[in-house]
Amino acid sequence: MSLKIRLSRAGAKKRPFYRIVIADSRSPRDGRYIEKIGTFDPLLPKDSAERIKFDVDRAKHWLSHGALPTDRVLRFFDAEGLMKREPRNNPEKAKPGQKRLDREEEKAKAAAAKAEAEEEAKKAAAEAAAEAAAAPAEEAPAEEAPAEEAPAEEAPAEEAPAEEAPAEEAPADGEAEKAE
Predict the structure, then answer these.
(1) pLDDT of residue 88
(2) What are phi and psi of 37, to 5 degrees?
(3) Cα four-point dihedral sign 138, 144, 145, 149
(4) Tell me: the pLDDT tens digits for 23-69?
(5) pLDDT exceeds cutoff 60 at 148
(6) Which residue ranges make up each domain of the chain?
(7) In CATH, what number does 3-80 get?
(8) Average pLDDT of 71-90?
């Protein structure tokens, strides 16, 4: 029979309270135990004296009989100076999971595509500006020619009343839609 010093859960739903017990390693967590040596209340502040209470003499007795503490109980014993717990190092714990890596990769691709599209738009705008800067120099004489043809441009101004006629037809189309 191998003995364990472990926590046995008690308390209500979402209000945990643990007993520090000596139990057979094969018995269930909250099942039969040999002896209760203390309590642990995780809801109390960490600096509270009532948070962890256990009988040090009984703990030493059971440790001398070969009982092995679980990691959490070993932390309590280490704080009391009964046993020494070596700190563990898990470098994998800080690494993000595969789903997060995939999401970050998708975001990076989307950002790169967006940056590339913006850069192409800037290039196109720069080219258009360069063409516009070069075109007025070449088209300057061409602009003078329409300035001389100003009387010809007055003719379309006379056609303006003709443009108003379709505007009058627009309500007729609206009436047709209402009739339908």
Answers:
(1) 81
(2) -110, -10
(3) positive
(4) 998 999 888 999 999 999 999 999 998 999 999 999 999 999 999 99
(5) no
(6) 3-80, 94-138
(7) 3.30.1320.10
(8) 88
Q: Report the relative pairing of strands 68-69 and 3-12 from DSSP bridges.
A: parallel
Asked if residue 139 has pLDDT above 60, the reply is: no
Tokens of residue 175, six digits? 């009436």
CB 38 within 8 A of CB 19: yes
Task: Take residue 161 and report the two structure tokens written for it.
Answer: 């009343």
Burial of 107 (0-12, 13-18, 19+ CB in 10 A): exposed
Angle at 48 between CA 44 and CA 53, to 5 degrees: 90
The CA distance from 22 to 35, in Å, is 5
pLDDT greater than 60 at residue 154: no
Contacts of 122 (CB under 8 A, 6+ apart): none
> What HEC string does the chain produce?
CCEEEEEEEEEECCEEEEEEEEEECCCCCCCCCCEEEEEECCCCCCCCCCCEEECHHHHHHHHHCCCEECHHHHHHHHHHCCCCCCCCCCCCCCCCCHHHHHHHHHHHHHHHHHHHHHHHHHHHHHHHHHHHHHHHHHHHHHHHHHHHCHHHHHHHHHCHHHHHHHHHHHHHHHHHHHHC
Distance between CA 97 and CA 8 in Å, rounded?
Answer: 32
